[in-house]
Amino acid sequence: MFKSVTIKDIAKALGVSTSTVSRALNGSYEIGTETKKLVLEYAEKINYRPNPIALSLKEQKSHSIGVVVCEVANDYFSQAINGIESIAYNRGYHVIITQTHESFDRETANVKHLLSRHVDGLLVSLSAQTTDTLQYQDLLEKGFPIVFFDRAAPGLNTHKVIANNFKGAFDATEALIKAGFAKIAHLTNSKNLLISLERLEGYKAALHEYGIEFNPAFVKHCDHGGMIQGEVELALKELLSMDVPPQAIFSGSDRLTISSISILKKMGIKIPQDVALAGFTNSDVVQLFDPPLTVVRQPAFQIGQMATEMLIKTIESKWPVYEFNTEKVDVELIVRSSSQKN
């Protein structure tokens, strides 16, 4: 069984006190040069490493950050996590990642688990099922650091980093309109999510701008965000079996966009000949698809970095933080042939 070496072990081996060993390891000027050299050389020889749990108990900090996302396999979140880690590890923090799989119960359990691990703060992107944010409200009232990214809770007073969802949806819908499509459907996530509402508003604003009447029947909500293929397949079948079906589809999330491509192909629907497609996705392979896909791309890596910087600044603040910012980051529309008329 593995047994780590402690300061007591070093002190016993060298015949000095534990406080002398501790001071030597911490570079204290109170220890003589020879003693310090003796302790450091012995510690190196036996490959001594400080116990992070003991350190965290002493400092009341674990130097770890908890992350709550829907799924790591999602291209957006995998890139955001890379951004989170790039900042956290350079600042001496470990990252503990949890997945909700769009479940409120799983999200609640994940937060409780992360708190039991004594994380110093949380980076949270809400699940599609989450409408009750009381657990976060309670933590914030106690001064616990939380930063929301991507899927933020609108009523909570804390730092948030979000994409410009309205503009991204407007630009994608406008691109479809300019390509000659007037009947445009919108496939989107749960109504519970603020990003869904913002992207729906961007879609509606673009229709209004070009004098196209909004048709509520053209909007389909997928409450599991594309994680259940059958849900997306049903939504697409309902849209395409309408008496007057849409000529184009704007999909409002990474998972929905990727799912739509494979389902439409399985249904024998050609893109863009039978229906054009544009959507939010951070997948790097969509430009290789046949046809290459028109996408709204979010700076996920940058969003992860910004959220982590905000969180660590809050964690390390010597004074309670009462002023919070919502950072809105621009998105990029990349037009390819999936949204073009032949």
Question: Could you give the topology of this structure?
Answer:
Elements: H1 7-14, H2 18-25, H3 33-45, H4 52-59, E1 64-69, H5 75-88, E2 94-99, H6 104-116, E3 121-124, H7 134-141, E4 146-149, E5 159-163, H8 165-178, E6 184-188, H9 194-209, E7 219-221, H10 229-240, E8 248-251, H11 254-266, E9 276-280, E10 294-297, H12 300-315, E11 326-329, E12 332-334
Parallel strand pairs: 1-2, 1-3, 3-4, 4-5, 5-11, 6-7, 6-8, 8-9, 9-10
Antiparallel strand pairs: 10-12
Domain HTH cro/C1-type: 6-49
Keywords: DNA-binding, Transcription, Transcription regulation
Pfam families: LacI, Peripla_BP_1
What is this structure, in a nutshell?
The protein contains 12 helices and 12 strands. The chain has 3 domains: 7-50, 434 Repressor (Amino-terminal Domain); 62-162 and 300-329, 3-Layer(aba) Sandwich (Rossmann fold), CATH 3.40.50.2300; 165-298 and 333-339, Rossmann fold, CATH 3.40.50.2300.
Main sheet attributes: strand count, strand direction, barrel closure: 6 strands, parallel
- Let me know the CATH homologous superfamily of the largest domain: Response regulator
Mean pLDDT: 90
Number of structural units classed as domains? 3
Verbal overview:
By secondary structure, this protein is of the alpha/beta class. The protein has 3 domains: 7-50, 434 Repressor (Amino-terminal Domain), CATH 1.10.260.40; 62-162 and 300-329, Response regulator (Rossmann fold, 3-Layer(aba) Sandwich); 165-298 and 333-339, Rossmann fold (3-Layer(aba) Sandwich). Helix content is 42%, strand content 15%. It is built from 12 helices and 12 strands. The strands form 2 sheets. A 6-stranded parallel β-sheet has the order 2-1-3-4-5-11, sandwiched between helices. Helix 5 packs across helix 12 and helix 10 (229-240) packs across helix 11. It is elongated. The protein starts with 6 loop residues before the first helix and ends in an 8-residue tail after the last strand.
